[in-house]
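Design review, sub-item: ligand-bound model
Attendees: FS, YL, KQ
YL presented the inputs for the NAP complex:
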Amino acid sequence: MVTEATRKSLLKVRVMDFITSTAVLPLLFGCVGVFSLFKLLQRMRTSAYLRNAVVVITGATSGLGRECARVFYTAGAKLVLCGRNREALEELTEELTASLATQVQTHRPYTVTFDLADPGAIVAAAAEILQRFGHVDVLLNNAGISYRGAIVDTATDVDKKVMETNYFGPVALTKALLPSMIKRRQGHVVVISSIQGKISIPFRSAYAASKHATQAFFDCLRAEVEQYEIQVTVLSPGYIHTNLSLHAVTADGSTYGVMDKTTAQGRSPVEVARDVLAAVGKKKKEVILADLLPSLAIYLRTLAPGLFFSLMASRARKERKSKNS
Ligand SMILES: NC(=O)c1ccc[n+]([C@@H]2O[C@H](COP(=O)([O-])OP(=O)(O)OC[C@H]3O[C@@H](n4cnc5c(N)ncnc54)[C@H](OP(=O)(O)O)[C@@H]3O)[C@@H](O)[C@H]2O)c1
Ligand SMILES: *[C@@H]1O[C@H](CO)[C@@H](O)[C@H](O)[C@H]1NC(C)=O
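KQ shared the predicted structure:
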């Protein structure tokens, strides 16, 4: 008589037999193998692309820019770190060069201090970088400033300030470096835009406008420089846990100084920096780095604008009510 136990073990043997005798197991290992190999090749391609590459990062003193500096440094890039705060740039340089030995040879970063709202300073900075390194492989336009306020209360000078930092600054820096990239027929312009470069949410007018303008400009650039084999990557992150909202400017030009809940709950800048590195390594044209909801909102704006507008209007009503209470 066959007991329950032997019946079970017989079944087990048969199942194992099936798995090993058929192609299931080899197929499974095969897939995992091909996938890992693919990932490995991708990583090797990224590191070959960035090793010894001259990479200029704006806004390297804080948040996402600082984390990007870390990952590109570790990848062996020759960094040019930019910001307004010289001390913070020096501190970051010391911190990077003091970090433990990495797999690839690293290079001591070079720092350039300038204000993106100052066109003359941008031209001088670009000339200094080209004189020092001869060329730029990757320009990462990351620096930016956010804004909080109602349009009706906002001084036009505030709109201009946000546009100068987020739009005219990166445009001027890119133009200053572009002729050298065209001459070499090599170069990569990367831009940190935002989900707000795709959709506008209430009380963020100047910021959303500057990011929409950025998206438009760099989409044009991508088309115009393809013939010179120059890459353009536009990245649009959702909320990232940085000090961006603390540094934001308000309707009267003062600093907002509040860590917004949405920002505090955002993705870690360390993670987003890794995604930036991967996107640059893969020479992606455009990447949305956000959760499902913001990504859906972009589709809604295109496919059902009426619905999107009423959702935003109700958001504005709620936000105003919570501010007044
Ligand atoms: N945090 C988010 O939720 C989020 C979401 C989507 C997109 N982004 C974008 O990500 C980028 C990085 O922002 P973050 O979140 O890392 O903010 P952050 O921590 O405030 O960093 C902003 C950086 O920009 C630099 N900067 C600001 N104004 C400048 C000026 N006039 N001239 C030169 N540099 C200037 C700052 O350097 P100095 O103070 O030294 O000048 C700082 O390094 C921005 O483009 C932002 O729009 C952020
Ligand atoms: C935010 O600012 C604080 C205080 O200056 C700093 O210690 C911290 O590193 C900053 N955070 C990020 C993500 O930049």
